[in-house]
Design goal:
Helix content is about 85%, strand content about 0%. The chain is built from three helices and no strands.
Length: about 150
């Protein structure tokens, strides 16, 4: 005889159960909590309670996650800078000279890329300036913004 653990459930039923437990139930709970908090604030304000205290608490609760994320990001950034400084000191002299050569090549490649793109950028900026001048000269009453 097979035990109940070995019998597989119908995939459609299993999907429906998972959908309920993982999507609908948390969504319903969150909506109920938000509605309860809203009703609490409405009843508190109509009975003469102060909303200033609750608004201050809400602002603190809204800012707190951003402060934690910012702090974690700052710590990671500081540790990565410290790690790069230590790694740069630990690099052997031959690799250090190879690194300076790569940085020099990078600088030269960037200069050549800027030289090749500059005529296109200059041409488009001249055309854009000419179009702006024409719009200003010919249509200055229609397109004038409030200043």
């Amino acid at each position: 005889m097979e035990s109940k653990n070995n019998i597989q459930k119908d995939p459609i039923k299993a999907h429906q159960q998972q959908t309920f437990w993982f999507i609908y139930l948390p969504l319903i709970l969150i909506v109920l909590i938000v509605v309860a908090i809203g009703l609490f604030f409405i009843l508190n304000s109509t009975s003469g309670g102060s909303l200033t205290t609750w608004s201050s608490i809400a602002v603190i609760l809204l800012i707190t996650p951003f402060v934690f994320i910012g702090t974690i990001t700052l710590v990671i950034l500081i540790l990565s800078v410290i790690g790069m400084v230590k790694a740069n000191k630990a690099v052997p002299p031959r690799l250090r000279s190879f690194r300076t050569i790569l940085l020099h090549l990078n600088t030269k490649a960037r200069e050549y890329a800027n030289r090749s793109a500059s005529p296109i950028i200059n041409g488009r900026s001249i055309i854009s300036g000419f179009n702006a001048f024409l719009n200003l000269a010919l249509f200055h009453n229609k397109n004038r913004r409030n200043r």
